[in-house]
Amino acid sequence: MKNKPIYVEIPIKAEMERLWEVxxxxxxxxxxxxxxxxxxYLPKKADEPQLFTYKTKIGFGLAVEGWGKSVGSHQTKDNxxxxxxxxxxxxxxxxxxxxxxxxxYKTRQGSIDFLTQYDYEVNxxxxxxVFDKLFFRPLxxxxxxxxxxxxxxxxxxxxxxHLQYKRFFSTWLISFLFFFIWSYxxxxxxxFAQHPEEIxxxxxxxxxxxxxxxxxxxxxxxxxxxxxxxxxxxxYKRKLLGIQIVIFPLLTIAAIxxxxxxxxxxxSPLTFNMALTILSIIGFYFSNDVPTSSSCKRxxx
Length: 301
Prior knowledge:
Blueprint: E1 6-12, H1 16-24, H2 26-32, E2 38-41, E3 51-59, E4 62-75, E5 81-88, E6 96-108, E7 111-122, H3 125-157, H4 161-192, H5 196-205, H6 210-233, H7 237-258, H8 269-286
Antiparallel strand pairs: 1-7, 2-3, 3-4, 4-5, 5-6, 6-7
Helix pairs in contact: 1-2, 4-6, 4-8, 5-6, 5-7, 7-8
């Protein structure tokens, strides 16, 4: 079954000429589009299509380099503009072999509907088709949508793309860290190992039988794992950070009351939770108004 082309659309409140400039000028385009690290126009004559090269860094010192060609552009009577592209790469490293697509700029009252649709052929035979369907196509579609939202915020609010991406990736790095911390402390000390210190801490805070204390610790571990999973799936990260700014100091006080001697331990709850509180405060600041791919329409109506 053939995959559907990638489609992304977003309304942008901007002048047509400005939007055209930042999407058609290589030095401006590469600033907001997460899919490209650099774009270079090649010399051309007046009657020739515009050729260009692009580079995408994929990490570990590796990069995919390819070619592109502006097949053409036209403008209708209602001021709708369309720019068509043909692109590809000869590098075997790339999942994309060759593709075609277009950008369209539809004028609406007070805004412009900026949209793209593109599709491509893949390398690596059937393995490449499966990899593309399950992983790469959703990833490149998400990157396109996120880039469109960054572009929208740049033109509407004036915030430079590189600052938006710093805030976006900082927020997600902190989110993955807290997912790991909460899940780890819920699973291993409490659920799997039922560490004696966890049992003793709970028993000193609440008067229960030994079996009740064990069940209580396991229950707390389950809640911690669920809270950890929220860092991956709950979209409002700032609310989670706000909760932690309150929770970590309370957990610190409870741990010290339960075991004052913990203040002299090598990994004291005072210093550990203080570090997490400060990290939560930093994350709370950076996570305000983070770019998101969800602001884009992903299917043609």
